[in-house]
Structure formats: C-alpha cells, structure tokens
Amino acid sequence: MLRRFQGAPLLLFAGLAILAQVALSTLKADFYLTQLTMAAWYTLVALGLCLLMGYAGQVSMGHAGFFAIGGYTAAVISTAGAPAWLSIPAGVVVTAGVALLVGIPVLRLRGHYLAMATLAFGFIVSRIILGTPLFGQADGISDIPAYHLVAGLAITGRRALRVQNYYIAWAVVALGLVLALNLVRSRTGRALRAIHGDEEAAAASGISVARHKLAVFVLSAVYAGLAGACLAHFNGGIGPGEAGIMKSVRYVALVAAGGMANLWGTLTVSAALTFLSLRGAFGLLDDAVFGGLLVAIMLFAPQGVFGLLRRQEKVP
Amino acid sequence: MSEPVLRIRDLHHWFGGLHVISGAAFSCAPAAVTAIIGPNGAGKTTLFNLVAGTFSPVRGSIVFDGKAIQGLPSHRVAALGISRTFQTTRLFPGMSVLENVMVGRHRRARGGFLPDLGGRLFNGREESRMRRACMDILESLGIAGLAEQEARSLPFGRQRLVELARALASEPKLLLLDEPACGLNPSETEEMARRITAVRERGITILIVEHDMSLVMGISDRVVVLSFGSVIAEGTPREVQANDQVVSLYLGAGAGDEGDDREAARA
Questions:
Q1: Contact A201/B99, CB-based, under 8 Å?
Q2: What integer is the mean pLDDT of A277-283?
C-alpha cells in the first residue's frame, strides 16, 4: 500500500484537466474555464483543511477567515501602490502569522470547543472586514490589478489569459496536493494521524502534540491564505462574503464529503461541487445545499461519498 | 550496587480530596523487572501516570537516569527514554501495525515538517531506515507477518504485542507496562511473560503493574507492594509472598479475590 506507484492518479488528474480545457476551448465554451479556475482556488482551501481536519483531527470552522485574510491583504497591498510582487507573498505571510497567534490559544481546546472557537474567529474576521473602511466594508475592494508571475504569466481575470489562468490555478492545486500527500505519508503525517487517534498515546510516543497541531494549523491556513490572495487577483476584487460563516461551513462540508482523511476525495468533491455552485446550479439554495450535505454526510456516510462505494464492495 | 534507573521519593498526589499517592518511595534497579502490586485502588496506575508525565505530582521527586523528571510533559518524558503501554491497549486507529510501531519510533528519527512536505527525495533514506528498524522489532516479537494489517482489527492478544512493539521502537531505557496480561488467556499470558523476560535480557529496565500473580512472581526481580498510595512491603517475590502484612492485605481483609475481580471487570 505504501510502496504503490503514486504517479498514476496524478497523471490521470493532469490528463483530465488538459482534456477539459481542450474540449471546452474547441466547443467555444471556454467561459466555463473561469468557474473551473475559481473552483481550483477554493479547492486549495479544502485541501489545506483536509490536512488539518481529516488527518490531524482538528476541526476549523473558521477557514473562510484565513482565506479572507490572504485575499484582503493582497487586495490592500496591490491597490495601495506597494511593490506589485509583494501582494501574494504578504497575503500568505500575514495569514500564517494570524494562524500562529490564533492557533496557540485555540488549539488547546478539543472537539466541539475547538469548533466553537474557530467559528468565533471566522466571525470576528468577518465583522472586522465589514467595519473597516480600509477593507471597503460591505463593498469590498475592487480594481485589484493582475499579479505578474514570470514571462507573460499573470494571475488575472482578463479573457485573453483565461486558459493560462486555468492551468496556473490547477498547477498550484496539484503542487499543494503533492506536498500534502508527501506529508501524510511521512513521519510527520503519522504523528498527525496518531494525534487524531489518541493524543495521550501519541504524547507517550514522544510526539509533541501542541507543536504538531500548531504546525499543521498554520500550514492549513497558508493554503487558505494563498488561495484567497490568488483568487482576489483573478477576480480583480474581493468582498466580505468570502469571510462568511457559510463559506467556512462549505469547506468543512467538502472535506467531510471527500471522506475526511482523503485528499483525493476532497479534491474531487470540491472541484465538482464548487464548480456547480459557481455555475449557479444550486440557485438560491446554494448555502443550504452545502449545509445539508454536511448534515447528510455526518448522518449517513461518515466515510464520505467514496466511502459509500467502498463499503458496498467490502461487505462480506 | 549500581545506580537505580528510576528513583521515586516521597511522592504525593491527590485528585480533589482523594489522596491517591501518599509518600510512595522505591527504586528500579537497572535491567531488572520491578513489579508494583496492590489491591484495587492502591494507586498503581496513578503512579504510572505520574512517572510517564500524564499528571504532574503534587509533591515529591521522580529521578530518572540522574535527572528529575517530575512535572515534565509526557512527550518530554518519552524523549528521555521512558516508554509505556496502557492498561487497555491504545493503538492508533486506521493505521497499520507497522505504522503504529513507526509512531513509537518518532523520536529516533530525524526530520520535520519541511522535509516531510518534500517527500521521498528529502526523507526517503530516513523513512526506509525507520521502516527497517521497526520491522526488526516486529520480527523479534514474532509478529512481522502482521505488519501491513490494520492494528485495531487484530485479536486482542496480538494488539497487546503490537503495543509492546510500539513501546520498544523508541529503544527506551525504562519500559512501563500497565497490566500487560490483562485480558489475555493463559497461553497468551505465558507468551507475554517470555517476551518481557526477553526484553529485560536486552538490558531494558522494566516497571510493571500487574494483577496476574503467577506472571508477577515468575518474571519479577523485585516486588513493591502498594496500599493506599504508599509502599508497605518490598522485596523479592519470595519475600513478599512470605510477608504477613501482604498476606493479610490480600487475604485477611477477605477482599483479595473480590478486589481482583472488580479490577478485572473495570478493566
């Protein structure tokens, strides 16, 4: 199981991504690429949360807060005349810093209490954004310029760069996935899973529980912050809705539906559902769909949607 | 006589108004098996938890390998070279036998978040070294064939051995075994006794809490009798068995067998 060739699913993933782009471009339906690109950035948040929640067993009901911190930091910096390259790195660094400061006290709590505390954190971020003129209050921040990477590559929503942005976003997701897969299969990953299973036994094995929890919390927030910063540049704007409680619930629902400790499952579910949601497939019931999904998964399929299939195979 | 590996002096601990450990004092000689026995509620498991760092004692000293460890958190105690098993086995769910043992070896391997994000290119050599060492431990306990099985799906007796393997993976100087025979059938108990003796022959000091008297008397070099949180007798198994106070504690009060049953039922 541990020695199996890990490249095959990645090749399949890359193949599907290329196939989707080629098909959509040929069919002159490449407006779908915009939502697929946005879905990629949201999926990055879900992958980070999957590490924290699925593997280390620490619930965060405030991940939209980290996404918003990354996004708003990038937005403020790139519209305030600071050096243009600074916005995304600053978004990531500020998110990591906030996660560190929040994580130290909050991660002493367990289970429901941790969920409550992170929920409160998300709520605080949301209210600060709504109440601060620097962050544009209810209007958010618009006119965020393109973020230039190298050699003509830029994170931007301009139509001419639609295809390259699709690939940039999914390449970053693939990188985030590979790093996460490496982590969960390593000594650190085993330590995180051990903490999830039994904190006391993990500590008795010499694992510093507090340090590992904090590290994965910060890493998870970095995924969210990077996604927020990149999506702010892609959309050219960011609004307070990104920090909303229902957004945090949505990320939790995606990880739960993906099967908790299942990075590939989270990726698949997140890409599909986020895309449908962005296309407006759920209409006015958008938030209700994700809330309902979370409840349904908890009640009927705690192993996630793929766990349902697997269980049917396994029944003797 | 050589310096003891563990020396406990005047140890006190209470939960609320309940004085669980009151002035316990004893030591563990190197590469010997020291057993703690005593009736239900004598404070044996609490004593273990104090040594392992789960609780911090209200008063007293615990010196391990010349270093005062009372009050240190359990991961630091483990890092210094004390491993433990639990009264009810506590293997990590969703992980294979080998992975469980590899967690036990956490402190013996180098690495960190960043190399682990990088994958095999950065941690490959350390990972395979760790895997080999853990397979050797499984081999030595005769359970290498179970390496890829999910640990918690194994029969109870096997789980006990996996937990022992996990505790040994850190190459501890002192091994704390909390009722290793609890829930085992006679033949499994016999196997466990053989394994414990083999561990001791590798030079590892062992402190054991156990109810199975035949196991205790068979493998222990020294027996410490605990009652109401203090040591009331100490000596070789033979000496302790001949001690009137111990006999009355177990038999005279008429609660010996009953107490054992209760303890067994509780576990």
A1: no
A2: 93
Residue A52's SS3 state is: helix
Compute the distance between CA of residue B67 and CA of residue B76 in angstroms, rounded to an integer: 12
Question: What is the tally of structural domains in chain A?
Answer: 1
Residue A85 within any structural domain of the chain: yes
Chain A / chain B CB contacts < 8 angstroms: 102
A2 → chain B, closest CA residue: B148
Q: A128: distance to nearest CA of chain B, Å? A: 32
* Helix runs in A27-161, H state only: 32-49, 63-79, 87-106, 111-131
Nearest to A207 among B54, B75, B148 (CB): B75
Helix (H, G, I), strand (E, B) or coil at A207: coil
The answer to whether the beta carbons of residues B165 and B141 sit under 8 Å apart is yes
Task: Note the CATH architecture for domain B1-81+172-187+204-267.
Answer: 3-Layer(aba) Sandwich (3.40)
Q: Which domain holds residue A123?
A: 7-245
Interface test with A, best of B106, B148, B152, B168 (most A CBs within 10 A): B106
Q: Judging by DSSP bridges, how do beta strands B174-178 and B205-209 pair with one another? A: parallel
Encode pLDDT of A18-28 as tens digits. 999 999 999 99
Q: Please report, for chain B, the start and end positions of each structural domain, with discontinuous segments joined by +.
A: 1-81+172-187+204-267, 93-171
**What is the spatial order of strands in the sheet that B174-178 belongs to?**
B82-84, B174-178, B205-209, B33-37, B222-227, B230-235
| Shortest CA gap A297–chain B (Å) | 19
In a domain, A37, yes or no: yes
In-domain check, residue A51: yes
Joined tokens for residue A145: 């310029």
ipTM: 0.90
pLDDT band at A2 (very low <50, low <70, confident <90, very high): very low
Identify the segments of chain B with pLDDT beneath 70.
1, 251-267
pLDDT for the residue A313: 52
CA distance to partner chain B, nearest, from residue A206 (Å): 4
Specify the residue for token string 């007798």.
B233
Percent of chain B with pLDDT over 70: 93
List pLDDT tens digits, range B67-89.
999 999 999 999 999 999 999 99
Residues of A with CB under 8 A from a CB of B: 1, 178-179, 181-183, 185-191, 193-194, 197-198, 200-209, 215, 219, 261
> CA-based diameter of chain B, in Å?
66
Contacting residues for A52 by C-beta, under 8 A, at least 6 apart = A58, A60, A216, A217, A219, A220
